[in-house]
């Protein structure tokens, strides 16, 4: 692993760029390793992840691991799975849930950190904010329509809804997602994990 990688990671971990806008002290949460083959491009850490320092350390993470068919060990194996949210620090709560990711975080860090992942075979793009950034063509589409068009991005990219329990209603209203997409996704993850 290069020194450049180590210094970039150390710099990102020590970032305080938008400290004055955050509800708690900055604590960037991500998982990166140059050997990673799967990238989880998420939204922002929740309060549980902020507290533990572990990404997706909550009910959303349990559901996401189930969607992927990955054990906890494999999910947190940085040489397999990279996890990089659009905002790396906990954004705080709004009226209807956690606040949206702050744009300055992706502006400051995202391209440089993604460059450290030359071996990614599949990028899972979770939620609207990550989809607009990673799939600019989806900007005018709803999340549902973007996910319905998943074959347009497959097999190197897959748009997903957020696995939060707050999306239980969406999952109930869109049973095609679990029936049609998850078996294909699990097969691909299993194949990548064996390589
Ligand atoms: S949210 Fe991003 S830009 Fe803001 S302090 Fe945390 S790491 Fe830095």
Automatic annotation (TrEMBL):
Q: Which Pfam families match?
A: UDG (PF03167)
The signal peptide, as residue positions, is none
Q: Which domain of life is it from?
A: Bacteria
Residue intervals of the Uracil-DNA glycosylase-like domain = 29-186
Which CDD domains does the entry link to?
UDG_like
Its name, as the record gives it, is Uracil-DNA glycosylase superfamily
């Amino acid at each position: 692993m290069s020194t450049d990688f180590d210094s970039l990671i150390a710099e990102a971990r020590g970032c305080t760029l938008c400290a004055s806008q955050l509800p708690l002290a900055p604590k960037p949460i991500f998982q990166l390793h140059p050997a990673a083959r799967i990238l989880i491009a998420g939204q922002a850490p929740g309060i549980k992840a902020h507290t533990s320092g572990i990404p997706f350390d909550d009910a959303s993470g349990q559901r996401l691991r189930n969607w992927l068919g990955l054990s906890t060990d494999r999910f947190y194996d940085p040489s397999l799975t990279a996890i990089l949210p659009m905002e790396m620090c906990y954004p705080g709560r709004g009226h209807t849930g956690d606040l949206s990711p702050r744009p300055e975080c992706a502006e400051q860090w995202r391209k440089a950190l993604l460059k450290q992942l030359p071996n990614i075979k599949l990028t899972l793009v979770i939620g609207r904010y990550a989809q607009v950034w990673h799939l600019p063509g989806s900007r005018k589409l709803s999340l549902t329509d973007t996910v319905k068009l998943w074959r347009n991005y497959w097999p190197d990219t897959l748009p997903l809804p957020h696995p939060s329990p707050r999306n239980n209603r969406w999952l109930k209203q869109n049973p095609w997602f679990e029936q049609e997409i998850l078996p294909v996704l699990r097969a691909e993850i299993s194949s990548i994990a064996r390589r």
